Amino acid sequence: VVLVRGMIPIGASFERHEWRALLAPVLTYSAAAAAGVLYFRVAIVLVSLIAGARELGYYGLSFRIIEILFNVPALVVGAAFPIFARAARDDPARLGYALTKVFEVALLCGVWIALSVAVGAHFAVIVIGGKSFLPAVPILAVQGLAVGASFVGAVWAYGMLSLRLHRLILIFNLVMLVFVAALVALLTVLDGAEGAAIATASTEIFGAVAGGVLL
């Protein structure tokens, strides 16, 4: 305060147009993030309504394991977001290069995670739920595919964010939410909790492909 007294204003100011420019993308992206959170929860609600308590128990055990792993792609790919954001502003060619390299790493990580979940599903279910939850093993193995695909999906999501495509992200997440709800409802009726797992994995794989095409 002593150094800048008389040089710059010290009091707080409120510029409506500046706040509007700041809040518009923030609120849009916040809505998109909320849709993304609901996307992962809608399957549990639908399984509980359609398949009953036993199937919900199997699916819930699997989901609790997968829920932890779903945080990994955002952490891994998010580390490259500052590079994406700077390149999107100053150097589109560098952005394309960075997205390509991170995509290659994310694809390898996704395949490795999916295989690891499939191989370790039996052990994980025994440790967490016991032998009575063995029917959850194939459910967990299938949902491992969803985690693997989410690594690739995270690359496209951060790419869109770096380009400030907030409205596109919101529309994409809402479409994915509707799509997963419809597919989970259909496949849960046909095959219970395992059908719901197939639906979520299929939706995530579809989202990974569609996100790349949109970007």
Topology:
Layout: H1 16-50, H2 53-69, H3 71-78, H4 81-90, H5 92-128, H6 136-162, H7 166-214
Helix pairs in contact: 1-2, 1-7, 2-6, 2-7, 3-6, 4-5, 4-6, 5-6, 6-7
Q: What is the N-to-C succession of helices and strands?
A: HHHHHHH
Unreliable stretches (pLDDT < 50, length at least 5) are none
Class inferred from helices and paired strands: mainly alpha
What is the subunit arrangement here? single chain
Overview of the molecule:
With 215 residues, the protein is an all-alpha fold. The protein contains seven helices and no strands. Helix 1 packs antiparallel against helix 2 and helix 3 packs parallel to helix 6.
Put the structure in a nutshell:
With 215 residues, this protein is mainly alpha-helical. The chain has 7 helices and no strands.
